[in-house]
User: What shape does this take?
Amino acid sequence: MNFKLKDIGPQLMTVVAVVLIFGFFTYNAQVNMENRGIDFGYGFLSQESSFDVQFSLIEYDGSHSYFRAYLVGLLNTILVSVIGIFLATILGVIVGIARLSPNYLINKFAAFYVEFFRNIPLLLQIFFWYFAALRALPLPQDAEPIFGISYLTIKGLFVPAFIWENFNIFLYSIIATIISIIVIRSHAKKVQENRGKQIPVLLISIGLIIILPLLSFLIGGVKLSFEVPVLKKLATTSYIYDGGVSLPPELIALALSLSLYTATFIAECVRAGIQGVGKGQKEAAASIGLTQNQVLKLVVMPQALRIIIPPTTNQYLNLTKNSSLAAAIAYPDLVLVFAGTALMQTGKAIEIVSITMFTYLSLSISISVFMNWYNNKIAIQEK
Amino acid sequence: MFKYLKQLTSLVAMVAVLFTFTTETMAAKKSKTLKNTQKKGFVRCGVSQGLPGFSNADAAGNWTGVDVDVCRAVAAAVLGDANKVKFTPLSAKERFTALTSGEIDILSRNTTWTLSRDADIGLTFVGVNFYDGQGFMVRKSSGITSVDQFKNGISACTNIGTTTELNMRDFFNSRGISYEPVAFEKADEVVAAYDAGRCDTYTTDKSGLAAQRTKMKNPDEHIVLPETISKEPLGPVVRQGDSVWEDIVRWSLNTMIEAEEYGITSANADSMKTSDNPQIKRLVGAEGEMGAAFGLDNEWNLRIIKQVGNYGESYKRNIADTGILPDRGPNELWTKGGILYVPPSR
Assistant: This one.
């Protein structure tokens, strides 16, 4: 009996303490809210929000509900995170490899970039890109066209909009392309394993990517036209571009600063991963006659990835959470729209903050689950 | 016989002492906020992050403004010293949470009194210290002189978490104009973005526009359009559930306004004690028991007037003399054509 108590005693006490602490906080919040006449409840989510949001991926205006405003903020957070992760990964891999370059200039430049950007607080970088770099951009009426069709101005980037006819047929052609490339690749692998014969997969893939969508235009009746942004006068010195698609400068500044900042950490992960692969591996690969590229692709990277993935996952999570700094520069993300405006208009602090926390938690867990799955997939398979 | 009389008087004295003791502590007992404030020795006051004329800190960290003066008045009343205030700068988004969670005891931060704020979120508005309305600022060079010239696609910079966002939607919607709202958390960021040319117009309360205009690179390049699109009565706010504290803040503000009505200033307040007018005497603590109900002494209102001044002095010092809004407009006394009208202290 004594022995058992000693075993479960500490755990039991911890559980009781946790329950008591949570109980106390809940009780305390309840009593205080009751004293001040504040109701608790999530009913406000279906009420009309009556405020507008600058930039939204789904149809939204003030006549929609608070829940819809929440979705707008969430999608904007996901959008900037996805763009940021995409850019940071590409830049990080390039810089990470560049840091190992035997070329002195490339090597030092990459090192300088990493040390410079990772040692300046992110919020300052966001302010820099938004307030300093943005101010340097021209007003819409002074902007020089990029390729004659796009304009980068202080009010954002204005690009042509695609106007499709029979878009679904084009989409099918893309899907068909992807499927056929996968089939060819697995077939080529089998052929190589069985007979040692190599099929030029890359050439065939490029051919497919060009031919199939082209066919959809020629036979499928797909038509594509562009709507080019046109300068429109609002007042004597006030202009805006009408038509086309506009990307707000807030999104550009945020995506840029997030990816430049996070890329430095990813670059270090990549460098660590590559350096973590034994020198003997490379030498052995070279000695059996593989080219530099093949050494990197077939021997070094598969082993390096195992080292790179787990810390890079952390960086993806950091980037997603850091995107909440958007509130400082008016990018309408979850924190600004929902934990900002919606919280203020409804006064439902506990409800909204709890939803927001839960949302970030879910986002982070989804990213972790995916990255863990990928990590397991590339981990050493004991045979 | 004398023996009994002696006993009786001591009994009466004891009861009297006990009675005064209980009445004095009753108010303090009823008001937890008052008790805590007196124990701490300072009033905890939430203000803006920098709005000239209303609440603004200089380089040395001294706060000035008409909103600041409300808190100073309360400090003069309950602690005897108008300087015993701890100011907490808050963004529009943080302000109500700071108050309801007990981080501050008075929110005096150009806050609009609306039904939903008063009723829903555990707050009580105690009065109005500035009658305002929402307006628009544009660049002079744009040639816009009226909101009628606004066109589809206009971008408007503003703060999040304010009534401004809602009024803006109502305004543009009712006129059928499509617009791009660009909402920042801090006022300084709104000004910086508008100044850089990110937005065609900057919208907030007109007093705020006038105040922020002084902060711009070149104030003369901007004008505030004449139209007012909403009513914005700004005033101090307290937590719900402490009615004594609520009364103290309300009557501290009322004292400042009424003092102006009766011509009592920080300079002449002491000499007004001998005035013939009983209402003036009540306002300087020379007649009646005006502080007892709050658990305060009788000269609480005299201290407010002496240390902070009346409403007119505060307005002149902070808003008129700084060139923000020299004309008092609706914030003139009811006796002089304005709408400032407070219940009498008696």
The CA atoms of residues 112 and 289 of chain A lie 35 Å apart. The radius of gyration of chain A is 27 Å. Chain A has three domains: 2-38, 50-126+246-378, 169-218. Chain A touches chain B at residues 33, 35-39, 50-54, 62, 131, 134-135, 139, 154-155, 232, 234-238, 240, 242, 248-250, 327-330, 332, 336, 340-341, 343-347, 349 (CB under 8 Å).
